[in-house]
Amino acid sequence: MTPDIVIVPHTHWDREWYLPFQRFRLGLVRMLDEVLDTMAADPGYRFTMDGQLAALEDYLEIRPERLGEVRGLVAEGRFAAGPWLILADEFLCAGETLIRNLEYGMRGAAGLGGFMRVGYLPDQFGHCAQMPQILRQAGLEHACVWRGVPASVDRDAFAWVGADGTAIRTQYLPGGYGNAVALFSGPAEALTDRLTAFTETLRPWHPTGPLLAMYGADHSAPAADITTAGLRVATLHDYVTAADPALAGLPAVHGELRSHARANILPGVISARMPAKQAMARAERIVTRYAEPLSALWTPGSTAAARLLDMAWRRLIACSGHDSITGCGADETAQQVAARIAEAEQIGQAVVDMVSASLAGQAARDALVVVNPSPFPRTALVLADLPESRAALLAPDGGQVPAQRLELAPTLLDETVMDDLTQLLGRIHERELFGQEILSWSAAEDVFTVVVGRHATTGYDYADLRSAVLGHAAARPGPWRVRTCAEPVVTVAAQVTVAPLGRTVLTSAPVPAPAPHSPGWTRPDDGTLDNGLLRVTVAADGTLSLFSAGAEAHGVGRVVDGGDAGDTYNHAPPRDDVLVDTPVRVEVDGVCTGPLVSVLEIHREYAWPVCSTPDARSEATERVTVTTRAELRAGEPYLRLETSFDNHCRDHRVRWHAPLPRPAAESFSEGQLSVVRRGLTAEGGCGEHPLPTFPAEGFVTAGGLAVLLDQVTEYELTGGDLALTLIRSVGLLSSNRNAYRDEPAGPQLPTPAAQCPGPVTMRFAVLPHHGAWHEAALPRLAEEYRHALLAVPGSGHGPAAPGAEGSGVSSAGAGGPGVSSAGATGPGASSAGVGASVEVEGAGVVLAALRERDGELEIRLVAEHPAATEAVIRGPFGAARRADLRGTAGERLEVTGGAVRLPLRPFEIATVHLTRAG
């Protein structure tokens, strides 16, 4: 009698891992050539391409002549493609990136004949809480997973309940995605015995009906003759979708899947190669929250912007792969990932530049255009580099905005000795010199000086300059010292109010008298910062105390260095670890004082062991200075921190600690469009130490202390502290002997770049607070902290303000493209000329995306709130409809007085299509 088994031939294909992408692709071409040849010769053969379309696209790029063949097989249902573009790590990219990943995969596979209607997630290192809702809103009724499933699941199907209550039938893969990989290995006469053993192993998980045999492995093709065994052969789509999607009688699992009980989830990838995590978050932010919304609102219909954004998204999605952004690949792979992330960011910035140029052209050269990326009014700081004699900013109505001088920029750009002064003329291109515009020139003895500026406001004629150079060269043969000086500029912080997703235009004016300190502000010279909302003091050991309206925290910012003898997958301390948390020297410097910004720097010198082994840390030490820049801004209830050091040590982990104001048995962390509650432990099993380190994307809070983040960061509640990982330095892709994992997670290859040598910088903000996370409005504060106002210098030829000499904007900063600013509250400049403003109101309602789609605005909102709420969308709209994640319009929404009201469940993701009025 033939066993009741369904064979699913498949492969699991890592596009890049211990080999870089192009070297793996060569094997992919060989594998799919073999599979397609087999399918052509055997009509009964079926194949499942790992749930990701990218590998199939990679193949067809090399074998375009087989496109028709692939289309035919996909359309027949013999070849299962999609629904994902890539198998992403669900915790190391933004929730919107996961949504676009599914969108691109479904659309691409549909173009080949159809996508697999199963949310197949075979090898991700755990699964995020919003995945059931994402899959359901994309029209999928089934998921399929392996890692992260808790011990409470005792069968091969369960109801996975997402953050918003959406439940989806989920196929569990006992034994993994290769549970039948050895089924057809060995002597043919022993096949019956192997089938019997397989049935005995899997039948307890699936008491009745056909058993799922996943016949495949990493980077290999299944055997070609399996159909001769007399067993049913199918795609994963065929097997899973044949099951009743009803959830009655199935065990329920709520929220994220991060249990170690059934399989390793390899949590150390959250902190491996931290610079890649920083770069990914920055690129996602620029593309999602600056490039897309700005182009949709200010340059609608731009085909160039649409094409560029498509390119950026494809690179971001490719980098989100579970062996890419995780950092658990070879150094060559990490280099390629870093290059793609950088390219995605550059493409996004190019779109921002396009929109900025349009906005700048509408403002005079002495003006500064400030754009708000948030869907609510913002009063925040922008930094502008202005001529020293005009270092102030005026609001559009002529009233002066609050401003503060921060620092004088250096002016000498170059000094060169020239034997012949006429050589200078070869450097000049019309009016340009050193990337700026020539303002004036002068000669004194043997020095010829040229002054340049970002925007020239004086008359200029090249013939005049040429005549002056030739005249001085004839009068004095040389040598000459030729100096190029930038017009003296000063960096000014200005507090500006901007409408939701709108803009305001400021002009420069003469410097006012220095502003007195606002009430509550104190000088940082004595190690104290105070803006009236938050008071910060520095202790003798360099840690901080924070006081805010009865909430306080002490000992904040202790830096702890410990050994790490693990690998890119799992942290593992040496058997005899040594923790270093006491500095040998502490210095505190005051940098600048309010009324808008006060900054101090804390320099702590430590003696860290040079390296570690699985047994102990080295006796030899390296002197390391850790600098913490503490910045307090007007109206902000949180302290901005930047911690940096030069890493010359190996095999260690550095963490930032903050004692909790009150005991806490749980934390709340924002990430992937949800806020997740976690305890002090993780469920163990399967030979992996359940280290309770977890990822957070937007914020994490516990015991009345919150940290706002601008990247995915690893954290742990330990010993009454909240600990954030600043860096984890390791030298192996996977160690064959890892104290926290029984089995290797990959090949034992050296990864010297994963030691992360050189400068290390982490930025975040910290605040004590009362009440729960939603009562402290942490989603709103995280939005303000992460998304700085965009400032663009005017470039038009309109009338300038009387006496103005031009303005510019600093390109430094971490908050957004071309800016160094972030949210604040309080009075400021009024907004003007806002024609594209879109406003969103609602408790805990967060903007996930805003883009142009098929001639309409598509806005995606998330209710990051534990109770039902209502979103109100205001703007110049004539019609509105709900839509699913594939862009299909659904329920019509009423537009009353330019407002759309949208009731939302807790943690509901809502997509709305808006038609512009008129």
Summarize the SSE layout with pairings:
Elements: E1 5-9, H1 21-41, E2 47-48, H2 54-62, H3 67-76, E3 79-80, H4 95-111, E4 119-121, H5 131-137, E5 142-145, E6 157-161, E7 167-172, H6 191-202, E8 211-215, E9 232-233, H7 236-241, E10 252-254, H8 274-298, H9 303-319, H10 331-361, E11 367-371, E12 378-387, E13 393-394, E14 403-408, E15 412-418, E16 432-433, E17 436-444, E18 447-453, H11 462-475, E19 480-486, E20 489-498, E21 503-508, E22 528-530, E23 535-538, E24 544-548, E25 551-556, E26 558-563, E27 585-592, E28 597-609, E29 621-633, E30 639-647, E31 652-659, E32 667-671, E33 674-678, E34 694-696, E35 699-702, E36 705-709, E37 713-718, E38 721-729, E39 758-768, H12 778-786, E40 790-793, E41 823-824, E42 839-841, E43 845-853, E44 856-863, E45 869-874, E46 877-883, E47 889-893, E48 895-896, E49 899-904, E50 909-916
Parallel strand pairs: 1-8, 1-9, 2-3, 4-5, 5-7, 6-10, 18-19
Antiparallel strand pairs: 6-7, 11-21, 11-40, 12-20, 12-41, 13-21, 14-20, 15-19, 16-17, 17-18, 22-23, 23-24, 24-25, 26-31, 27-28, 28-29, 29-30, 30-39, 31-38, 32-33, 32-35, 34-37, 35-36, 36-39, 37-38, 42-45, 43-44, 44-50, 45-49, 46-47, 46-50, 48-49
